[in-house]
Write a structure and sequence with these properties.
The chain is mainly α and about 180 residues long. About 45% of the residues lie in helices and about 0% in strands.
């Protein structure tokens, strides 16, 4: 289904419509932009092209308002440009970003990814039979009341745990490699 615009894509028609709106705003509320059927019939403007006439019919009354127009300048504000939506990061990208934001080295970030792969295979909502949650399988007491399935939060909490217990992420990885848990 093809949807027609209220104002044509033709630059001349768009310019005419903009001028008409500016005139209507300058005239104030005393002159309606579109005349009602009782006052006068709506007639198309003679200079409208065939393409534009299919999409926009401009009433003659809007072109020649009955009230006098003062010379007050009208400010036409263009809409703000729309920013493209931010790309959603993958779980691996989120872990890497949080690690970099926390000031970890490249080796430590790789160690984080290595541990997350072995603990949960990068599944944010992973829950073990032992009652551990998220990417890094944090204990219930660590995640109670927190958004544990949020990759960024889980990573920040895991980094805090690893630094507190082992001194660094690399030492936590070394412990995991020797014991298959951390």
């Amino acid at each position: 289904m093809k949807v027609r615009s209220l104002i044509s894509s033709n630059p001349l028609v768009r310019g005419a419509a903009t001028c008409l709106m500016a005139l209507a705003l300058a005239a104030g509320a005393s002159t309606p932009l579109v005349a009602s059927a009782e006052t006068a019939p709506v007639q198309p403007v003679a200079s409208v092209t065939a393409e534009a006439s299919a999409t926009a019919i401009v009433p003659v009354e809007a072109v020649t308002p009955t009230a006098t127009v003062d010379a007050t300048p009208v400010l036409v504000v263009a809409p703000a440009p729309v920013k493209p939506a931010a790309k959603k990061l993958t779980v691996r990208q989120t872990i890497s970003k949080v690690g970099r934001d926390k000031g970890l080295s490249k080796a430590s970030v790789k160690a984080l990814l290595w541990i997350a792969k072995r603990e949960s295979n990068f599944h944010r909502k992973s829950v073990s039979s032992g009652g551990c949650y998220g990417l890094f399988q944090l204990s219930h007491s660590m995640v109670r009341g927190h958004p544990w399935s949020n990759a960024a939060w889980n990573t920040k909490r895991a980094i805090k745990y690893m630094k507190g217990r082992y001194g660094s992420v690399l030492k936590a990885k070394a412990f995991w490699a020797a014991h298959h848990w951390y």
